[in-house]
Design a protein that fits this description.
It is built from three helices and no strands. The chain starts with 16 loop residues before the first helix and ends with a helix. The longest helix is centred in the N-terminal third of the chain and has 26 residues. The chain is mainly α. Helix 1 runs antiparallel to helix 2 and helix 2 packs antiparallel against helix 3.
């Protein structure tokens, strides 16, 4: 029987350039979303216009992050870790905000 050879690559691939832009945008979207939810919970659901502004900012940052994450995944021979993390965060936030808006409009 042959032994399996495990190859270890010592060459570090740099992060995708677009992922270095996408990750801060996804963090900003997450922070804006948490601030919006925190203010809304503190006001017991009777939030003012600033709650909507924080939420809209979160949505806009998440869309920008999603676009940059997808383009970062198209770069060749790069490290995609930050792009995948920001894609998950921004995608999750967009699903959350879409559901929240639909519940608000329908319910």
């Amino acid at each position: 029987m042959r032994k399996k050879q495990h190859r270890i690559s010592y060459i570090r691939k740099p992060f995708a350039r677009k992922s270095l832009i996408s990750f801060p945008f996804s963090m900003a979207a997450l922070i804006c979303g948490l601030v919006s939810l925190g203010i809304s919970a503190h006001m017991q659901g009777q939030g003012e216009v600033n709650v909507a502004a924080w939420g809209l900012s979160s949505i806009i940052f998440a869309v920008i992050s999603l676009c940059y994450s997808v383009t970062a995944l198209l770069e060749k021979e790069m490290n995609y870790l930050l792009a995948k993390i920001s894609l998950g965060i921004s995608g999750g936030l967009l699903v959350f905000w879409t559901c929240l808006v639909l519940v608000g409009l329908i319910g």
